[in-house]
């Protein structure tokens, strides 16, 4: 319901309510307010910021934090953004009575950033079902709005307090996961919680292959794909694999992220594709794996790959693996099959290997690699997983798989300089350099066309 309804209902010459203006500037947080409104009937007006206005509902009874209590919420006209601060008395006419702020604060959806949260709210409004995390003084936690048959009537319900229940099952916080560096499990949980809004878009809807280190990096590791028992707030996805069905964990919100970390998952390994398009990966990755070869060779090879991809107008995004290698991703936008992605990756790997035969190898077996860097393109297959961007590795100093600018991929780059200590501030400064890997994919046909032209030109040059 547009802001014009707001204007037409009021005589703003008489009322001191805010003018019908839309907020023009984008801010990094979304706000909510609940105003106690002593009109002819006392009610509570819930308002959520979206699209520069406040989406609004009138709730006839005081909102409750008891999940068993459902409050009727009548959707009303959008209010201007500045209404969030409004307190005072509305003169006789529409809404006459005093208004005071009952609660206010910020909100988001599943820890997403403001523009992504806003998108979720708008989609939820259309669908008739939305949820959001309120951070107010009185209301804190996840709330739902669910539309009833009458289009204007919704129910406002507090979600069962999984954030409280996850906080209580978080266990052994004092345990030193990195005994030498004195980094505890609590530190690890704190890191993931602080960067949740950056990592969650990269994990969302991707089946997770769990590597559990319940005793920290010096203890045993357990590999687990099938998650059969879990709390009710955890979501899994079932995938048929040969004879059996595997229930993979999905990490779509902060609670499930912390749940996984609490299981001892230091690292997070995700599929290249999402549940809605499982056969089609979102990106192709070349994994430069040195296993004893020098990191300066890894840098040289990465630069050569970048040069090649630039020449054929294919965007690419590097990140440290967090261990000793570099991952280079090419966005595919879930348009091509794994088999197409794998074939293209193989062509690229072969060209680079031919160019740098003395420092690269396509040999999978470590004993046959002769101290050269393995260009691993075989990860581009359904069921393979890769360390997610911003995930911590079970390595000394709690290193993090870190997206880089290409300019940073140079002689001075050391892969272990990015750790849980400095990534949060790097993210604040640079934002998510890996976001484009989830964006519009390349056109594979024109990439191959450009590659053919390039190879032909080289052939001609060699003949002359
Ligand atoms: Mn009202």
Give a description of the structure.
The structure is a single chain. With 464 residues, the protein is an alpha+beta fold. The protein folds into three domains: 3-160, no CATH class; 161-271, DNA primase, PRIM domain, CATH 3.90.920.10; 275-384 and 402-464, DNA primase, PRIM domain (Alpha-Beta Complex). Helix content is 25%, strand content 27%. The chain has ten helices and 22 strands. It is elongated, with a radius of gyration of 26 Å.
Q: How many distinct folded domains? A: 3
Distance between the termini: 70 Å
What Rg, in angstroms, do the CA atoms define? 26 Å
CATH class bucket of the largest domain? Alpha Beta
| Number of helical stretches of at least 4 residues | 10
Small ligands present: manganese (II) ion
Assess the beta-strand content as a share of residues.
25-35%
CATH superfamily of the largest domain: DNA primase, PRIM domain
Largest sheet: 8 strands, antiparallel, barrel
Helix fraction bin? 25-40%
Mean pLDDT: 94
CATH topology of the largest domain: DNA primase, PRIM domain
- Morphology: elongated
The CATH architecture designation of the largest domain is Alpha-Beta Complex
- Contiguous uncertain segments of 5+ residues: none
- Largest sheet, spatial ordering of strands: 1-2-3-4-9-8-7-6
Going by helix content, strand content and strand pairing, the class is alpha+beta
């Amino acid at each position: 319901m547009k802001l014009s309804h707001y204007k037409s209902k009021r005589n703003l010459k008489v009322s001191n309510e805010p003018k019908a203006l839309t907020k023009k500037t984008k801010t990094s947080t979304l706000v909510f307010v609940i105003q106690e409104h002593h009109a002819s009937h006392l009610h509570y007006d819930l308002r959520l910021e979206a699209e520069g206005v406040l989406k609004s509902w009138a709730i006839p009874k005081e909102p409750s934090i008891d999940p068993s209590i459902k409050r009727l919420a009548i959707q009303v006209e959008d209010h201007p953004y500045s209404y969030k601060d409004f307190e005072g008395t509305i003169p006789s006419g529409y809404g006459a009575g005093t208004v005071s702020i009952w609660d206010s604060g910020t909100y988001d959806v599943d820890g997403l950033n403001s523009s992504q949260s806003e998108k979720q709210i708008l989609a939820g409004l259309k669908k008739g079902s939305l949820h959001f995390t309120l951070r107010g003084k009185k209301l804190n936690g996840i709330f739902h709005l669910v539309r009833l048959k009458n289009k204007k009537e919704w129910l406002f319900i507090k979600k069962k307090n999984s954030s409280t229940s996850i906080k209580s099952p978080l266990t052994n916080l004092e345990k030193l996961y990195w005994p030498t560096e004195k980094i505890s499990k609590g530190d690890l949980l704190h890191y993931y919680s602080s960067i949740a809004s950056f990592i969650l878009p990269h994990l969302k809807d991707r089946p997770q292959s769990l590597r559990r280190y319940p005793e920290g990096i010096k203890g045993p590791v357990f590999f687990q794909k099938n998650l059969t028992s879990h709390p009710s707030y955890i979501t899994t996805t079932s995938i048929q694999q040969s004879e059996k069905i595997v229930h993979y964990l999905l990490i779509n919100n902060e609670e499930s992220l912390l749940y996984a970390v609490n299981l001892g998952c230091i690292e997070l390994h995700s599929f290249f594709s999402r549940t809605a398009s499982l056969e089609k990966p979102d990106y192709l990755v070349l994994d430069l794996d040195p296993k004893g070869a020098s990191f300066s060779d890894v840098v040289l090879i990465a630069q050569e790959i970048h040069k090649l991809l630039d020449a054929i107008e294919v965007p690419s995004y590097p990140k440290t693996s967090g261990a000793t290698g570099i991952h280079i991703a090419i966005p595919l936008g879930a348009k091509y099959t794994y088999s197409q992605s794998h074939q293209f990756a193989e062509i690229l790997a072969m060209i680079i290997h031919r160019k740098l035969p003395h420092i690269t190898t396509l040999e999978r077996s470590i004993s046959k690699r002769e101290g050269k860097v393995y260009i691993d393109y075989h990860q581009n297959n359904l069921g393979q997983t890769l360390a997610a961007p911003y995930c911590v590795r079970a390595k000394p100093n709690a290193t993090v798989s870190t997206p880089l600018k290409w300019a940073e991929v140079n002689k001075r780059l050391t892969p272990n300089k990015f750790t849980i200590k400095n990534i949060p501030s790097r993210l604040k400064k640079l934002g998510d350099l890996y976001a484009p890997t989830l964006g519009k994919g390349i056109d594979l046909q024109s990439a191959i066309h450009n590659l053919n032209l390039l190879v032909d030109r080289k052939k001609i040059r060699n003949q002359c």
